[in-house]
Amino acid sequence: MRKPIIAGNWKMHKTVGEAIDFVTSLQKELEGWERTEVVVAPSFTALASVAERLRGGRIALAAQDVCWEEEGAYTGEVSPLMLRDVGCQYVIIGHSERRAYFGESDETVNKKVKAALSHDLNPIICVGESLEEREHGDTFRVVEGQVKEDLRGVDAEAARNMVIAYEPVWAIGTGKTASPGQAQEVQSFIRGLLSDMFSPALAEVIRIQYGGSVKPDNIDELMAQPDIDGALVGGASLEVGSFARIVRVERG
Ligand code: 13P
Fold first, then answer.
1. How far is the CA of 134 from the centre of ligand 1 (A)?
2. Scanning 21, 60, 83, 120, which has its CA 20 to 30 A from the CA of 11?
């Protein structure tokens, strides 16, 4: 049985003080809650302080990006070694905003995924089609290309620890959620790809999240789908009440 995983991607929001206040309240809200794995992804500047506050608790810490190199002359980059050092267990890789605005490609995603896994950092790998691609009937082709390229050469044992996030670009920040049926259709397809690339047994344990306008009022129907194992939440993860409500989802 896959344990649901709900992650809050804060994107470029919250100062260090705001981040600390947020996780302090979230810890109180979720006291005793064990049924869902909970992850928060603050910006780089808040990671160390948030890690300190989360120490010994159940909420896990993620970064929003990582470099594929361990160290060296890479101005502005942060390595997997540094993220582990500061207390991250997860890292979001290949978010569509990074692909659209910062030149992230499947090739760089693949390098980052391998670097993360080799440092015991669990990648949350984002894939998803644009509106234009969906309207042209290209959704499955695009998602298949991303999954195959992003995971090329990844070791099967290490793959167990990764999370895939299906985030249709047209649903991100638009208030337009994929219907549970649309998300399930693609996520079951992704599980099929994982089964072919690794093994059916491994595909059964890898968690696949849905992301794109997830809110307290649509999480239940999304999570009722057999291949939706959690959510990667943007806007609704910035407020403790709505994020805690999403975390408390009962698997259907
Ligand atoms: P929204 O929940 O704001 O649509 O963002 C989704 C997302 O991009 C999470 O990574």
1. 18
2. 120
**Domain carrying residue 169:** 5-247
Gap between the Cα atoms of 161 and 170, Å rounded: 28
Question: Which is nearest to 28 in space by CA: 52, 4, 59, 66?
Answer: 59
CATH label of the domain that carries residue 49: 3.20.20.70
Q: With a 6 A CB cut-off, is 230 part of the ligand 1 pocket?
A: no
Asked if the structure places residue 145 within a domain, the reply is yes
Q: From the alpha carbon of 173, which atom of ligand 1 is closest? A: 4
Is the distance from the beta carbon of residue 239 to the nearest atom of ligand 1 less than 6 Å? no
Backbone angles phi, psi at 48, to 5 degrees: -65, -45
Domain tally, the chain:
1
Based on the residue annotation, tell me whether 167 is a catalytic residue of this protein: yes
Rounded to the nearest whole angstrom, what is the distance from the C-alpha of residue 72 to the centroid of ligand 1? 32
Exposure string over 120-149, b if 16+ CB within 10 A, otherwise e: ebbbbbbbbbbeebbeeeebeebbeebbee
The tens-digit pLDDT sequence of the chain (252 residues) is 899 999 999 999 999 999 999 999 999 999 999 999 999 999 999 999 999 999 999 999 999 999 999 999 999 999 999 999 999 999 999 999 999 999 999 999 999 999 999 999 999 999 999 999 999 999 999 999 999 999 999 999 999 999 999 999 999 988 888 999 999 999 999 999 999 999 999 999 999 999 999 999 999 999 999 999 999 999 999 999 999 999 998 664
* 149 tagged catalytic: no
The structure's pTM equals: 0.97
225 falls within a domain: yes
Which ligand 1 atom minimizes the distance to the CA of 215? 2
